[in-house]
Write a structure and sequence with these properties.
Structural class: mainly beta
Number of strands: 21
Radius of gyration: 16 Å
Length: 250
């Protein structure tokens, strides 16, 4: 994986989504991404931060819905049109900033990006500030795993997760460094049930674009979201951290 510094777009044939907070990627309430956009709802604010920028979500009604993409329903690894198939391997990187702390509720601050925890996957901060990844792979029914480290101190952090069905593991990273590894006795692809459309800042139950959500909204800031159909290495996660940390002032 490499980065094209002109537009902050990773150069990878496994890239599924890149939403970068650079101001040129903001068109009113549309966050222009590759290869699809995110439309913000109920007017979250965008703030420029040097060469990057971020959306602030209020935790009560603001979110974004992802256009022209859905996953799941026993689809092929690579789909056509809006059907993007399933995830045999997945890497997700999110640049985030939150102070939310509800102590006990794992679903209280959903979500950085969600295609439905019980159908495909969800990546989010637990209410206590740890990094959460949940998914449905047909073997490990609705699994939920959490980091040891927290990201709810009001500073910018990189939260990352890597899932591999062939390697039978899930890894969670904080700021480019491995935090936790979870292994499975068996593992299959993510997305073996109902097809779901995605959200930034809300939980998904959506069977269509901007469809049904969980009414559980994210309280915090999101500046960059990158999703791959690949299980990237520790060094490649560290590369995302090193390439973009100065943009976020860390």
């Amino acid at each position: 994986m490499s980065v094209h510094y002109g537009d902050q777009l990773p150069q990878s044939d496994k890239l599924e989504l890149c939403l970068d907070g650079a101001s040129k990627n903001i068109d009113g309430q549309t966050w222009k991404g590759y290869p699809f956009d995110c439309v913000m709802v109920n007017s979250p604010s965008y703030t420029q931060l040097g060469s990057v920028g971020y959306w602030t979500l209020n935790g009560s009604n603001q979110y974004g819905y992802l256009k022209s993409v859905n996953y799941g329903a026993d689809g092929p690894p690579v789909g056509t049109g809006s059907d993007h198939g399933v995830f045999y391997d997945l890497t997700i990187n999110v640049w985030c900033n939150t102070t939310y702390n509800a102590s006990t509720g794992y679903s209280d601050n959903w979500a950085w990006i969600d295609f439905d925890r019980s159908e495909v996957f969800n990546f989010y901060p637990h209410g206590n500030g740890t990094i959460g990844f949940s998914g449905k792979d047909g073997v490990n029914d609705y699994f939920d795993r959490f980091s040891t480290g927290t990201v709810n101190d009001g500073q910018w952090h990189l939260a990352s997760a890597v899932y591999s069905s062939s390697g039978k593991y899930l890894k969670i990273y904080k700021d480019g460094a491995l935090d936790s590894t979870f292994t499975f006795s068996n593992a299959e692809y993510l997305g073996d049930r109902s097809r779901r459309w995605g959200f930034i800042g809300e939980g998904s139950e959506a069977a269509n674009e901007n469809g049904l959500g969980n009414s559980r909204y994210h309280d915090g800031k999101v500046g960059r979201v990158v999703l791959f159909k690949a299980a990237y290495t520790d060094n490649e996660i560290k590369q995302e951290w090193e390439n973009h940390r100065t943009r976020f002032g860390v």
